[in-house]
Amino acid sequence: MATLPAPVTMDKLVSLCKRRGFVFQSSEIYGGFNGVWDHGPLGAELRNNIKRAWWEDYVYKRTDIVGLDSAILANPAVWQASGHLENFTDPLVECRNCHNRFRADQIDLTRNCTVCGKFDWTDIKQFNTMFKTFVGPVEEEASVAYLRPETCQAIFVNFRLVQGAMRKKLPFGIAQIGKAFRNEITTGNFIFRLRELEQMELEYFVRPDQADAAFEELLGINVEWLVNHGVRRSKLDLYEHPEGARAHYSRRTVDIMYDFPFGKSELQGVANRGDFDLTQHAKASGRDLDYFDDETNEKVTPYVIEPSIGVDRSSLVFMLEAYDEEADKDGVRTVMRFHPRLAPVKAAVLPLVKKDAALVALSHEVFASLRGEMLVLYDESGAVGRRYRRQDEIGTPYCITVDSQSLEDRTVTIRDRDSMQQVRFPVEGIRDEINRRLRLPWTRPD
Ligand SMILES: [Zn+2]
C-alpha cells in the first residue's frame, strides 16, 4: 500500500544537492572548508534565476528603484562611521579545557562543555565578525581593511552620487546584489549560516513621516514575492524585534521567519534604519548627505527602510519548498517543484529512440532551436520513463519528446512536470511556446 511520502529532511536535500550538482562542499577534495560552499552547474543557474527575478521585480518593473554594484573592499572609515567596528560582534565564550569556542547566546553556560564534558568557561567577550585583511604589501595596522559584512553601507555612502546621477526624487530606492563576508563563530545547517554569503538588499529612502507606511508596504511586498515564487504562506511567520533587543541602527525590525526542518529561523529581515546611516556618514566624512527638496526648498535627512534577503538562504528555502516525493509504480518519484521562473533547467529534449538517424537529427534541430537564452538539456540514454524522472528530480518544467510521429507531422510532445500531461505541439514555434509557458503565473499543485 502506498504511504504518504515523508517530509523533506536536510539529509535528503543535501544529498540531492550534491548528486545533481546544486551545492558542493568548498574544497571537498581537501576535506571541505567550514561555512563555505560552492555552487554546481544547477546551483549556479538557480541562484542566477533568483537574482534575475529579484532584479526584474524590484529594479525593472518599478520606476522608483535603481541599481548599484559597489566594491567588496572600502575605506575602513566606512566601518568606523557605520558602527561595525564597535558593534558588529557576537558574544564569544571559550572552554578553557578543550579550547573550543562557542557563541555564548547559543549554548547553556550553566552546563558542562558539550565537546569535552568539563565545566570551565572563560568570561564572555565580544568578538567582531568582520573579516580583516591588509591592503598593499605591508601587514601593519595602518593598512587594515575589511571585507564588507553587508552590502548596504556602500549604498549609504553613494546616496548623493546615485541620487544626483539618476535625478531621483524621494521616495526612491537603491538595490544591490553582492557578496558579503562574516566570520561566524559557529556555522551550520548547510547553506543557512555561512562565512561567505550573497545578499540582495534594497535601501528605500523616504521622508521621515512616510517611514512607517513605507515599512508596512515593503514588508507586504516582500512576503508576497516569496509566496509568488512558491513559498507556502503557512510556512512563513513574522517576528517583531522587541524594543531594546534591536540592532544599534534600527528603529523597527521585523524578521520574515521560515519553518526550516531544523526549526523556525530568519529568512529575511526588514528594518527601519531611520536616518542613522546617512547622519553617521555625513558626520564622519564632513560631507552633506541630505536631500534637497526643490519644491519646498527644504533639506531632509531621509529615513531608510531596508528589506534584506540572502541569495543562499532564499535558495535553500526555494529548494526545501520545491522538494516533493510521490509514490509511483517503481517506488518513489522525487520532484523538485520549482517555480518555472526559478527552475535551473527550463526544458529537456528527449529522442524516444537513439538509433533512428532521422529522429536523432530532428531532436538535435529542436534542441538547437531552444538553446541560447535558457538552459536546455539533451538526454538520450535509458528508457524514457527514467529520463523523465531524472528531469523531475532537478525540477525541469518541460520535457520535449521526439517520436516516430514527429517524423511524419513535425510535432513533438510537451510533458508538464506537475500534471505529467503531454500535448503535441509543432516543432516550428516550440521556442515561443516554452517561453510563453515560462511566463504564465504558477501555483504549486497541492
Ligand atoms: Zn570543552
Protein described:
- The protein is α+β, with helices and mostly antiparallel strands and 446 residues long.
- The protein has 2 domains: 10-73 and 148-319, BirA Bifunctional Protein, domain 2 (2-Layer Sandwich); 345-439, Rossmann fold.
- The protein contains 13 helices and 23 strands.
- It has helices spanning 10-19, 41-60, 77-82, 84-87, 152-157, 159-166, 211-228, 276-285, 311-322, 357-370, 384-394, 404-409, 430-439, and strands at 23-25, 37-39, 65-68, 89-94, 101-103, 125-128, 132-134, 144-146, 172-181, 196-206, 236-240, 252-260, 263-274, 291-293, 298-300, 303-310, 323-328, 331-336, 347-351, 376-378, 398-402, 411-416, 422-426.
- A 7-stranded mixed beta sheet has the order 3-9-10-16-13-12-11, with helices on both faces. A 5-stranded mixed beta sheet has the order 20-19-21-22-23, with helices on both faces.
- A hairpin with a 4-residue loop joins strand 14 (291-293) and strand 15.
- Helix 2 packs across helix 9 (311-322).
- The longest helix has 20 residues, at 41-60.
- It starts with 9 loop residues before the first helix and ends in a 7-residue tail after the last helix.
- The mean pLDDT is 95.
- The site of zinc ion has 8 residues, from loops.
How many beta-strand runs?
A: 23
Order of neighbouring strands in the sheet with most strands: 3-9-10-16-13-12-11
Number of domains: 2
Helix content estimate:
25-40%
SSE order and pairing:
Blueprint: H1 10-19, E1 23-25, E2 37-39, H2 41-60, E3 65-68, H3 77-82, H4 84-87, E4 89-94, E5 101-103, E6 125-128, E7 132-134, E8 144-146, H5 152-157, H6 159-166, E9 172-181, E10 196-206, H7 211-228, E11 236-240, E12 252-260, E13 263-274, H8 276-285, E14 291-293, E15 298-300, E16 303-310, H9 311-322, E17 323-328, E18 331-336, E19 347-351, H10 357-370, E20 376-378, H11 384-394, E21 398-402, H12 404-409, E22 411-416, E23 422-426, H13 430-439
Parallel strand pairs: 3-9, 19-20, 19-21
Antiparallel strand pairs: 1-2, 4-5, 4-6, 7-8, 9-10, 10-16, 11-12, 12-13, 13-16, 14-15, 17-18, 21-22, 22-23
Helix pairs in contact: 2-9
